[in-house]
Amino acid sequence: MNKVNEGSVGVTRENLVRRMVRVGFLGAVGALLMVALEIPLLPSAPYLKWDAGDVPALLGAFSMGPLAGLLIEAVKNVVWQLMGKNSTGWIGFSANYLAGASLCFTAGGVYRAWHSREGAIAGMAAGTVAMTVVMCAANYYVFFPLWGIKGQAAAKAIISAAVPFNLLKGVLTSSITFIVYKRVRRYLGRG
User: pTM value?
Assistant: First the structure.
């Protein structure tokens, strides 16, 4: 078999194509889950809805690495946009990608370094914290000002809505991933 390049020992064109297919498939499944299942988590902020779209990206980050998680998040959000289901425009698109990417990249990186059950749990916990911190900063400095929310109002929204929502979102997404991963990992393969 032909190697993709000399620096990628063991990566064949066939393996690369398989990985691309898995990334595309998981991204499409993520987009469908975004549409099929939306649950408002906070009564005080019913506009913030959890969806299961990050579960396939987290599964991909665990099975193929953190960069695959980023790509799956990108595919998921592009497909979601192309389906015409995104009612929040490019701001919502960007926020959704950033939240999912910070969760998946962090969790996938920890799991890759510490490949065990404990590593998966630590990765998902670290990913949840990373997503919460990243989204607090991004909401305060970028997304909320774009929505016209600034200063004290933005700080209040961070504390009352963004922090609890992202923590709940991370725990729920991670819990489902933890339950599902063992059952589907053989289909996702490695490499």
Answer: 0.86
Let me know if 1 is exposed, middle or buried by CB neighbors in 10 A (0-12, 13-18, 19+): exposed
Whose tokens are 């690369």? That residue is 16
3-state class percentages of the chain: helix first, strand second, coil last, to nearest 5: 75, 5, 20
Domains of the chain from N-terminus onward:
13-188 (1.10.1760.20)
Q: How long a stretch of residues is the chain? A: 191
User: Contacts for 25-29 with beta carbons within 8 Å, 24 or more apart?
Assistant: 26/56, 26/57, 26/59, 26/60, 26/72, 26/75, 26/76, 26/188, 27/56, 27/57, 27/71, 27/72, 27/73, 27/74, 27/75, 27/76, 27/78, 27/79, 28/75, 28/76, 28/79, 29/56
Q: What is the pLDDT of residues 142-164, one digit of tens each?
A: 999 998 999 999 999 999 999 99
Most distant pair of Cα atoms in the chain: their distance: 60
